[in-house]
Amino acid sequence: MAHGLLVAGTTSDAGKSVVTAGICRALSRRGLTVAPYKAQNMSNNSMVTIDPETGEGAEIGRAQWIQAVAARATPEPAMNPVLLKPGSDRRSHVVVLGQPAGTLEAGEFAGGRNHLAEAAFAALDDLRNRFDVVVCEGAGSAAEINLRAHDYVNMGLAQHGSLPTILVGDIDRGGVFASMYGTLALLDAADQQLVRGFVINKFRGDVTLLKPGLDSLRALTGRPVLGVLPWQRDLWLDSEDSLALTSRPSHDGDGALTIAVVMLPRVSNFTDVDALCLEPDVRVRFVDDPRALAGADVVIVPGTRATLADLAWLRSRGLDAAIVGHVRRGGVVLGICGGFQMLGGEIVDPHGVEGTPGARDHGLGLLDVRTEFGRSKVLRLPAASALGAEATGYQIHHGRICAGGDDEFLGGARRGNVFGTMWHGTLEGDALRTAWLREVAVAVGREVHTGAVDFAAQREARLDLLADMIDEHIGVDVLLSTMGDHPTLPTLTGALA
Fold first, then answer.
1. What is the structure's pLDDT at 243?
2. pLDDT of 240 strictly over 70
3. 3-state DSSP assignment of residue 379
4. Count of domains in the chain?
5. Phi and psi angles of residue 372, each rounded to the nearest 5 degrees, phi first
6. Among 284, 337, 354, 473, who pairs with 250 as Cys (CB 3.0-4.6 Å)?
7. What GO MF annotations does this protein's record show (predicted)?
């Protein structure tokens, strides 16, 4: 069976996803076949893969998709066998091996997931039979002791696969040594044996200043700090967590175009705006207050996993009126998937896909469309042309659109300065993004210089930079040695029985 490694964390957003992506690319550059894996994501940021034999679409977490790109592997459902998509604070929609599989209530989270664990373990075993190395990413903290009895994502996964584990901690948050020691100490003795070492992430400054702490952590735990990764502003990647939105780069100067992206409570596929963040003549802001729309040339209403609930939220904050007023003043609006549905007319949920059967509401009336949620989910990788450019994207939605008299636009509609599309990812295409920005610039009377950004090349450059950091500050040989050895390690005093 293939080598395996679990990249666990002391907290959420410690950098597990980017470290995993960097390890995948570094190992791939050594000529190994590598697969990323995450047993369970809780995220509304996902991607579509297509089965080459059946042509059917499947849905996986966006982070595992970009990790597969890093590994130079074809993304597939086994890389993220369980995806939980929060529809509210107490209810998640479940995706198993790429397909919808009901819902999970908060009260079921601890003990109602045995069937999900079985699917996750089987997927890991399958990947390990087909690849040289499987690099697994944990979820949240490795020391979620309230969930350990039914855990299949962190140390439960490590036990199943006898996976050597490294703990990643974010020093930028402060308290990294305490979080690493404390995480290890909270694990039971058997789980502690699988933890081989630590990785400190996002360090700024002279690494020699850390040496006393590194030495003390090793003396206290019997485990080394395998590497200290430097903080890099431009290392953001396709993420699973909306916490990462605030780390998206954007140009703070007097950009020719200002784009305000509405931060919906259940925002999904927020990577749709990543390519805009790289444009030198575009400034992107993330907003949740109507006053923040002042001065914006463009408003983007992104996707959401809870269209009706987020529409109600939009109204409760006065953002609906602010968006309508923005259009009346000559501004541009782009709605994507659920955001597009909000810009239209009636929205109906006869089967309770988002919650209550028969729920309905009316959108902002800026586009002549009606939305009805179907039981089955649309999962596609469409292609077409728009604005004189070739365009591609991906579709993940239950909502079916019935369009009226507006112009067609990428599976959606357009009326003047209001654009709506059911396709995610279209702005990652350089030709379509350039054409749309030029159209927007004309509409608002601005000048925009476009065509200089190669988004795919910049993504590849970031993946290679990540791999360079892994090579320099940890080392592929160190990782391979960590995956190959099985030492007997000290158990911290006070560990759980």
1. 45
2. no
3. strand
4. 2
5. -130, 130
6. 284
7. ABC-type vitamin B12 transporter activity; catalytic activity
**Cβ–Cβ under 8 Å, residues 244 and 282:** no
Greater confidence, 6 or 239?
6
Q: Return the pLDDT at 485.
A: 77
CA–CA gap between residue 490 and residue 192 (Å, rounded): 8
The mean per-residue pLDDT over the stretch 317-343 comes to 97
**Would you state the structure tokens that stand for residue 334, as one six-digit string?**
């782009």
Alpha carbon of 482 to those of 127, 230, 486: distances in Å? 20, 21, 8
Residue 435: how many other CB atoms lie within 10 Å = 19
326, 337, 398, 473: the active-site residue: 337
Q: Is residue 131 in a domain?
A: yes
Same-domain check for residues 391 and 473: no
With left for phi above 0 and alpha for psi between -120 and 50, is residue 59 left, alpha or beta?
A: beta
Q: What is the CATH number of the domain that holds 391?
A: 3.40.50.880
Pair 36, 97 in one domain: yes
Condensed to tens digits (0 to 9), the pLDDT of residues 372-428 reads 999 999 999 999 999 999 999 999 999 999 988 899 999 999 999 999 999 999 999
CA distance 76 to 196: 29
424 is catalytic: yes
| Structural domain range at position 204 | 3-236+461-484
Distances (CA, A) of 110 to 107, 149, 150: 7, 8, 6
Known active-site residue 397: no
Is the C-alpha dihedral spanning 66, 72, 75, 78 positive or negative? negative
Which residues have CB under 8 Å from 168's CB, separation 6+? 7, 8, 9, 10, 14, 15, 16, 19, 198, 199, 201
Is residue 437 domain-shared with residue 466, that is, in the same domain?
no
Average pLDDT of every residue of the chain:
92
Nearest to 307 by CA among 273, 347, 334: 347
* pTM beyond cutoff 0.85: yes
d(Cα 15, Cα 71) in Å, to the nearest integer?
17
Above pLDDT 90, what percent of the chain?
79
Both structure tokens of 305 = 């996993």
Q: For the domain that residue 480 is a member of, what is the CATH number?
A: 3.40.50.300
Based on the fold, state whether residues 49 and 151 are members of the same structural domain: yes
Query: How do residues 21-69 score in pLDDT, each as one tens digit?
Result: 999 999 999 999 999 999 999 988 999 999 877 889 999 999 999 999 9
Q: Is the domain of 210 the same as that of 269?
A: no
Rounded average pLDDT over 267-293: 93
Query: How many residues in the chain?
Result: 497
Three-state DSSP at 36 gives strand
Looking at the structure, do residues 141 and 274 belong to the same domain, yes or no?
A: no
| Residue among 258, 302, 218, 235 nearest 441 (CA) | 258
- Same domain membership, residue 470 and residue 431: no
What is the reported pLDDT for 250?
A: 56
